[in-house]
Automatic annotation (TrEMBL):
One Pfam family, short name: DctP
PANTHER family associated with the record: DICARBOXYLATE-BINDING PERIPLASMIC PROTEIN, PTHR33376
The protein's name in its UniProt record: TRAP transporter substrate-binding protein
Keyword Protein biosynthesis carried by entry: no
Keywords noted in UniProt: Signal
Keyword Signal recorded: yes
Coiled coil: none
Superkingdom as given in the UniProt entry: Bacteria
Length: 334
C-alpha cells in the first residue's frame, strides 16, 4: 500500500506537468515553456531571484521562451526535484548543493567545513571558469547540468538555550544536520551529536527538545520562525553551501545556440541580482530576530572550530574521489 501511494505521489506531478502547448507539443519536454521547481516560499530571496531569471529569459528571447515556477515544494522534496529534472519531467530546479552530493561527489566540497575562510574566497572559486565548468558539466551524463549558483549565506549554529563560545561548548549537543555525510562528519568533529531530519521538522523538534540546535543562515530565524524557540545564534560561519540552478541536459541541448545563450545569460544576471536581494534580506532578518524575537547573536572563537575539522580536510585532499575537486577549489579560492 505504501509503495502504491508513493508511486501515485510521484505520478501526480508528472501528469500535472504534461500539459500540451498550443502546437500540441508537451510543455517542459518539446515546447518552449520551461517548468522550474524549488522548495522555498514566495517571499524568499531565492524565489525572487528565480522570478528575475524567468523575466530575463522571456525578455531576452522576446517572448519565445517562458518559465513557469512551482514554489513551496509543490513538486516534492529537493531530491525528488533533482530526479524529476533528470528524467525531464521538469526542466529546471533550484536545489542546495548539499542535495547534489549523492548524485555527484564533487558537490560535497561545499559541505567541507571551512573550505572557504570567508565569502570573498567563495566568490573567487565560483567565478573561476575551471571550477564552474567541472561542477556544472560533470553531471550531464546523468541527466542534468548546472546553469548558475545563488548565495545561500554562511551557515551558522543556533541553539535553544545554550550559548556557545568555542568548540568545547558543542559537547553533547544534539544538532540537526542536512542529509549529507560530510555535514554529519562535521558535527561529530565538533563533539556534538548529528541528527538528520527534514527541514520542516526543525521548529517542532527544537520546541520539544528532540534536538538542541540546528545550523543555517539568518533567514531560518524569521522565515521559518526558528527564532521563536532558538535564542542563541552563533557566528561559526562553518560552511558556505550555495543553491544551484540545474537544468535537464537533453532539454538544454534541444535549444539552438542562440537560445542556450539567452538561458545562460539570464541565469548569470539573476545571480548578480540575487546578491543585493540576499544582503538586504539578511540585514532585515537579523534586525527582526534581534529586536522582535530576542535572539542573541554571539561571536565565537572560530579558530577552535577550524582546528577541530582539520582531519576532514586531510581526508578530502587525499581521497581518490574528492582530492581533485578539493585541490582545484582551494587553489581557485586562494
Amino acid at each position: 500500500m505504501r509503495k502504491f501511494i508513493g508511486g501515485i505521489a510521484v505520478l501526480i506531478p508528472i501528469l500535472l506537468l504534461a500539459a500540451c502547448g498550443p502546437d500540441g507539443s508537451i510543455l517542459g519536454q518539446g515546447g518552449k515553456e520551461l517548468k522550474l521547481a524549488h522548495n522555498q516560499s514566495l517571499d524568499h530571496p531565492v524565489h525572487k531571484s528565480l522570478a528575475e531569471f524567468a523575466r530575463l529569459v522571456e525578455d531576452k528571447s522576446e517572448g519565445e521562451i517562458s518559465v513557469e515556477i512551482f514554489a513551496n515544494g509543490q513538486l516534492g522534496s529537493e531530491r525528488e526535484a533533482i530526479e524529476l529534472t533528470q528524467t525531464g519531467a521538469v526542466d529546471l530546479s533550484k536545489v542546495s548543493a548539499s542535495a547534489l552530493e549523492s548524485f555527484e561527489s564533487d558537490y560535497s566540497i561545499f559541505s567541507v567545513p571551512y573550505v572557504f575562510e570567508d565569502y570573498q574566497q567563495f566568490e573567487k572559486a565560483m567565478n573561476n571558469k575551471e571550477v564552474t565548468d567541472r561542477l556544472y558539466l560533470q553531471t550531464e551524463d546523468i541527466g542534468f547540468r548546472a546553469l548558475t549558483y545563488y548565495n545561500a549565506g554562511e551557515r551558522n549554529l543556533y541553539t535553544k538555550n545554550r550559548e556557545v563560545k568555542d568548540v568545547s561548548g558543542m559537547e553533547g549537543l544534539k544538532v540537526r544536520v542536512q542529509p549529507s555525510q560530510t555535514s554529519v562528519g562535521m558535527i561529530e568533529s565538533f563533539g556534538a551529536v548529528p541528527t538528520s531530519m527534514a527541514y520542516g521538522e526543525v521548529y517542532t523538534a527544537l520546541q520539544a527538545g528532540v534536538i538542541d540546535a540546528a545550523e543555517n543562515n539568518e533567514t531560518a530565524l524569521v522565515n521559518n520562525n526558528h527564532g521563536e524557540v532558538a535564542k542563541y545564534y552563533m557566528y561559526t560561519e562553518h560552511q558556505i553551501v550555495p543553491d544551484m540552478l540545474i537544468m535537464n541536459s537533453a532539454r538544454f541541448d534541444r535549444f539552438s545556440e542562440e537560445e542556450q545563450q539567452v538561458i545562460l545569460e539570464a541565469a548569470e544576471e539573476s545571480t548578480i541580482y540575487h546578491e543585493d536581494v540576499w544582503k538586504e534580506t539578511i540585514k532585515e532578518n537579523t534586525e527582526i530576530a534581534k529586536n522582535e524575537m530576542n535572539v542573541k547573536f554571539v561571536e565565537v572563537d572560530k579558530q577552535s572550530f577550524i582546528d577541530s575539522v582539520q582531519a576532514m580536510h586531510e581526508d578530502f585532499a587525499q581521497s581518490e574521489k574528492t582530492g581533485e575537486i578539493y585541490k582545484l577549489v582551494k587553489g581557485a579560492a586562494e
